Amino acid sequence: MHDARALIEMGAEAVRRLARRGYSLDLSRLEGLQSRRNQSIRSADELRAEAKRVASEVQQTAKQGGDISKLKERARELKDQIRDIDAEQEQVQEELTELLLTIPNLPDDAAPDGDSEEFAVEVRCVGTPPAFSFEPKDHVDLGESTGILDFARATKLSGPRFVVSRGAGAALERALATLFLDIHTRRHGYVEHSVPYLVSRKTMTGTGQLPKFEEDLFKTGVADRELFLIPTAEVPLTNLYADEIIPPTELPLALTAHTPCFRSEAGSYGRDTRGLIRQHQFAKVEIVQMVDPADADATLEAMVGHAEACLKELGLAYRVVKLAAGDTGFSAQLTYDIEVWIPSQNTYREISSISNFGTFQARRANIRTRGEDGKPTLVATLNGSGLPIGRTLAALLEQCQEQDGSIVLPESLFPYLGFRRISADGTREA
Predict the structure, then answer these.
(1) Which residue ranges in the chain fall short of pLDDT 70?
(2) In this structure, what is the dihedral angle of CA atoms 116, 122, 127, 132, given to the nearest 10 degrees?
(3) Phi, psi at residue 188, to the nearest 5°?
(4) Considering only Cβ atoms within 10 Å of each terminal Cβ, which end of the chain, N or C, has fewer?
């Protein structure tokens, strides 16, 4: 969320930057609401000051035996006026907050122009996409032919966009999650967490999922208690420090968690309805950092490397792109996507987004530290996928497939699996 005063002071510059992401800032409305809010605060302060003076006069006049009837009448009038101005102030503040909650973050000028993935700028390619002497199968056919993925039974249980993994497939998912967690905790200094999968509306608002993306969230509740299923571990991990002041000596904070993620994928029907690319429920290892804003740019570059380390460990071909301003997420200033090669589609597909949010989320969630002067100041937050299990599994099956339908697994997974190959019939082979 933005500081209204900062946006107003930026004026045309704020309008320009938001226009790059396709958002039209109504600066006059913002200025009007801020002005009304400030005026109501001043009026309330003046009325309270007068009420205090009148109360003092009532006491003094009563002690002297004077007539206090007019003073008491004025005190009652002031009480009514204060009640009315407080109600007006609350209404204006609510309107202002609702407006600010819908204004996306200001994109970094380093983000290229454009409003779709077509305008992303390639930063680097790593690894060579495998060349096959046969027509490569997609991960759905490979998973079903080996028996390690069962989409039909998952649909029977829950409807489309779910999967059941079994045997070597389930073991492979567990191994990938453990490998990623080990990379992040042992090499990169992240602290592993186990977090709730159900969170409050306030928590969802803190990281920017609400109010804008409510239709894309799964929601549940008991009696009058409302809870949302997390779309990513970014939500609970970041909000762990909501309404707190983090001692500067504890920064940077680096957090990671392996959780299920739940997304309705509203509006995306017809896209990737087959397979593991776009599921209602999927597992993911998330990485989150909270840092001094001055360190945010360098931290973003480092976190991209942390996610890349997982793909390098698996030997998968991928590329890194910088997203265009208009294709950057609501809360983000600047985003890098890591795209892994999917042979059956003959293209790279997004497997991780790593974003710098600046102080945008921290303001919404009220996450602060102390500056050199000892006063509270907002931190910067960053997060990314490191990595999603399903999409990694899809890329792994497709890039590591053999002509007979078997899968030769990366050597880095052997310590976690105890086998190096999944045969065409799903048998584990050392």
Answers:
(1) 266-272
(2) 50
(3) -110, 0
(4) C
